[in-house]
Each structure stands twice: as structure tokens, then as C-alpha cells.
Amino acid sequence: MGAATGQSLPVAVGVLLSPLPIVAVVLMLTSERARANASAFVVSWFVAVLAAVAAVAFLTAGTASDDGDPAAWAGWLKIVLGILLLVVGVRQFLGRPGAGVEPPAPRWMAAIDHFTPARSAGLAVLLVVVNPKNLLLVVSGGVAIASATESTGPTVIASLVFALVATIGVAVPVAIYVAMGARAARILRGLEAWMVHNNAVIMAVLLLILGTKILGDGIATL
Q1: C-alpha closest to that of 187 among 197, 170, 173, 198
Q2: pLDDT of 183-192, one tens digit each?
Q3: 10 Å Cβ neighbour count for 71?
């Protein structure tokens, strides 16, 4: 269990720091149905991450060879994932907005004021399984867990830890809102503006670091 958690934890931190889900929660907390929508999003985000990472971990289980070492294909899979993360990271960095230029906001952000809890929950699932950057990270986390353990119990526990860590990022704004009430609005709006403006740079740095780590892990496995 320790090995599976240790291998996947850096990737979970990458999901934790993903800006767009955090921005979505912040926008919900400044809408009319603040608590209901934000709570639905956080719970759905946790369930979606847990389901996705556990599914990948179990689907790629049995990666050990006859001598107990990870199978070669598991190493090649990590190499492919690492390269994909690096490519997406480079594209994010090259596509970052110039100084003084505000990046265009996704269209769903403008509609959040009219969201229901059900739509908020649905958005969380989409940001996990449809957003290619988050999906790549979750898949990488599942492969890391599978390559470190073949037992069901440790896989489940490592998947739970991964999902919990990955949910901290979207849970923190809710905690700030609950603790500070109306006074939290200024802090949350400042956080939203900063993360929207720096989304490309944040994701580029995360993807480049994690892509290098996963690529290195794959090479070491071969």
C-alpha cells in the first residue's frame, strides 16, 4: 500500500493544483446557490476521480512479470504517458497568453450563475473524464498504483488516498467560504482571477514536472 500511495501521490498533487476545477468552485461560491452547488461539485469530483483512478488501476493490474518485477509493457505505458504529459505541457506553455493579455474564459464559466446542484455535479465529472489534461493525470495515477501493487486492498486504499488528495484543491475554497462567510468573497475573487490568468503556466509546469517523473519511472522499469 505504501509503495502504491507513494508512486501515485505526486500525480494526485498535480490534480489537486489543476486551476479550472478550483475556479469552477469559486464561481459557484459567488452564485445564488453557493453551498448546494459547490458541495455537489466537490462530492462529485471526489467520486469521479476515485472511480476513474480505481478503474485504471484495476484494468492495468497484473503488471508484474514472473520474477516479480514490473512487466515491460507497464514501463512502456508509463513512457507513453510521460511523453503525452510533456507534449501537452509544452503546448500549454507555448500557448500561454502574453503579458497584459487576458486569456479567453471557457463558455461554461458564464453559465455557472444559473447552475443547479445536478449540473454542478455533472461539470465535475466532465472536468475529470473529458478534460484531457486532468484525464491524463488520473490515468497516470491509476497506472502508478497498478505498477506498485497487485493486491485489491492496497489498490483500493491507494485509490482512496489519491482521490482525497486530488479533492483538496476544490475543497479549500469551500472551507474558506464556510469559515469566513461574506468576507471570503474578496479572497475568492482574487484567487479566481489569478488562477484564470495563470492557468496555462500552472498546468504547463505541473505537466512538465509530472511528465518527466513518469517518463523516468517508465525508463527505470525497463
Answers
A1: 173
A2: 888 888 888 8
A3: 15
